[in-house]
Please model this.
Amino acid sequence: MPRAYSISVEDIAAERERVGGEVDDMNVANVIKLGTLELRDMGPGDVRLKILAVSAEHNVDHAALADTVNITESRGGKIYPGNSAVGEVVDVGADVTRFQKGDIAVTHCNGDPDEHGYPQRIWAYDTEDSVGWYAEEAVIGDWQLVHAPLSCGLNLWEIAALPLRAPTAHHLWRRAIGIYRLKVSRERRAVLNVLGFGGGVSELFLMLAKSEGHNAWLCSGNPERREALEKQGIAGIDQKQFNRFASRDDVRAFSREVRQLTNGEQMHIVCDMLRGPVFPAGFAVAARQGVNVSAGWQLSQVIEYNSTLASVKQVTLDHTHYETVVGCAAATELYGSVFKPTVHNEIYAFEDLPRAFEEMHQNTQTGIPIVRVADSMPTAANALIP
Ligand SMILES: NC(=O)c1ccc[n+]([C@@H]2O[C@H](COP(=O)([O-])OP(=O)(O)OC[C@H]3O[C@@H](n4cnc5c(N)ncnc54)[C@H](OP(=O)(O)O)[C@@H]3O)[C@@H](O)[C@H]2O)c1
Model:
């Protein structure tokens, strides 16, 4: 039986008890546990995947802390997390034509597309009976896989950084630019000012903006991330210089800085995956006809804003989630040419996955955290290991 990580209500409760109910003191490494998993039988449309590498994703942090909803409890007491992986196809069902043994594939996590392809649920999170990919092997419907673009110029860890974050950024960007263009045509204004707040998804969002010729800024508290993005022509703004927007004066100072950077125009598009104190800052720097787009709520699920002001400035707030299934394939086409992710400087061993999550939670990583799952790699993947 393959080894796999799980999160259980008992382990969440034990960790909560250890810290006297203080969620801020919880150590997610104590909650994510390694065990074994019996895989379901292969169906005709299934693929058996040997997992090569995965990236750590925030929904696992939310699941382990049970800080937004206790998803483990609603899923019956135990979940097997992991919805971003690169793997090798080791077996295919009788009806599978898109893949064959030996192919390298990336996963997507749109777990339950609605009639227009938008995800109603996310695989290995709230999709019923879904089993995730923080495991040595998995059985997956072939519709959940996209061929890995092995010659895109990225290394294996960079490819592993993208299956969840790149489609999210792709969806955010096509929605944001589409909404802005509904209001202001390219003929009237070709080059836009685009701002993203720290984090892997926002970085990728800014890479899309930059690749289409727009001005892009990353407002992050992490100097390594800002430096990496500056090499791609995306300017950095130090969020800590504005005390991470702890007070209204900090937001005012940030707004003054952005006015200066943009010759008084402010930001036409803002990507805010964090909310909490970041939201008022992003809202304050919205240009007229601006769009503020989000698929995350890392610091708070609730936002408050002045509706009159938003109307007068014609500002649109848009809430998105993960990409459609076909959109995931489109996002994968942009690996390497547009998406050049920053990867954390340690590649974690499979056994160290819980520590990777705790360090992600502590916000001490220099880029997207990657976990190497397979010791022995197929030749095509091995060639991409730096
Ligand atoms: N709906 C979806 O499909 C979807 C997909 C992916 C992610 N998400 C959600 O979006 C959020 C961000 O995801 P991600 O993958 O971009 O995250 P990530 O790469 O792990 O980055 C998280 C960022 O949060 C920032 N941060 C941490 N603590 C902060 C604080 N106290 N104040 C301000 N900033 C702080 C850090 O920015 P600094 O650089 O400034 O330190 C860090 O870079 C998560 O909540 C995640 O669950 C949603």
Remarks:
- Residues 58-59, 164-165, 168, 198-202, 220-222, 225, 239, 244, 273-274, 278, 295-296, 298-299, 321-322, 360, 363, 368 surround NAP (CB under 6 Å).
- Residues 165-183 form the longest helix (19 residues).
